[in-house]
Amino acid sequence: MTENTPYTSRPRWSQETKLTVSLLVIAFGVYLLYQFRILLPPLTLAIVLAYIVSPIAGFLHRQLRLPHALAILLGNLTLFLFLLLIPFIIVPPLASQLSTLNVDLRRLLATIDQLLQHDIALGPFSIHLPSLVQQVPLSSDQWIQPLLGQTLSIAVEVLSSVVWIIFIIVVSFYLVKDTDKFNQWVESHVPPLYQPDYRQLRTEINRIWGAFFRGQITLALVVSLIFTVMGFILGLPFALSMGLLAGLLEFLPSIGHGIWLTLATTLALLFGSTWIPVPNWVFALIIAGLHIIFQQFDINYLIPRIIGRSVHLPPIVVIVGIVAGAVAAGVTGIPLAAPTIATLRVLGRYVYAQLFDLDPFPHSVAPPLPPPDPQWHRRLQVHARLKRLFSRHDRQSTPS
Asked: Is the pTM above the cut of 0.90?
């Protein structure tokens, strides 16, 4: 068979061969995903970072006429500077009362020392705390060796984290820089008949993830406002800083709530309320109880409605998706559950329509309007003049 042999005369694969090859390709893809599953979380974070940096880089590229690569670097720098400013917003108010903190720490240590001198009765049993304290290893030989081992493991973890962070930044940079090239490369491998469908699916999925990030920012602002107002009402120390921190920690579901609750109860125990005359431990219980109530309100109302509405999902679907995301992907799966479900819905609707010969895009976008005519106002003026001229002619021709 020569190179000039027309394509139609070449032997074609049978349906059974096509099905077999397709199944083998899918199986091999699943195998690769399983073998390189350690790359999935950092790749996911790189994609998320690219979605966040892309609007900033696009704005700098359009408005300042900067090169695309430089705009992306400045976008990353802007994001990291914003993250670095967070401690400067939160830490100074906390550091302003270090002297008070020292006094409270002395009182707290004295209270703990008094508690350790007594026995704890649990029904018929009694725990002798002084004997437990004496069993704590106090010699250097007993705790230096484990401490050295932990230090080495921590150093390895820190080095590994730095490597992964560099990997995420580099991948996100090239995702933003070569988005058009990547889309063209993928589209070139799509059969020509299905390229319009691919472009439509890509547009819908991009809208879903863009709306999700806008909804996440809205959720963070709402939570910051609620926590700041409640902090001032209850007299929580550093109410403004704690409110801003609550909004930022909303990007870390579950873990963020735990971090905020730990800090807030610690502040309540050490400083108490600024105006409510209750003991510090009572105020700490009030803060903890209200936070637990708000956490349920956040998970069952705010997230389903703000995030769910941004991706057009019912609240119950978002709630179930959050639980499923936590089980399947841990902490990363919780915030990404809603847009992932919305993406799967788009793909599932397309597959369903193709299986049953339906229109996969029943709500297609209307064709764009024609460009505006810059001469419309002149035509309107000419029309008004002609109308006045004819009306004047009619009045003159009417017999008196």
From this structure: no
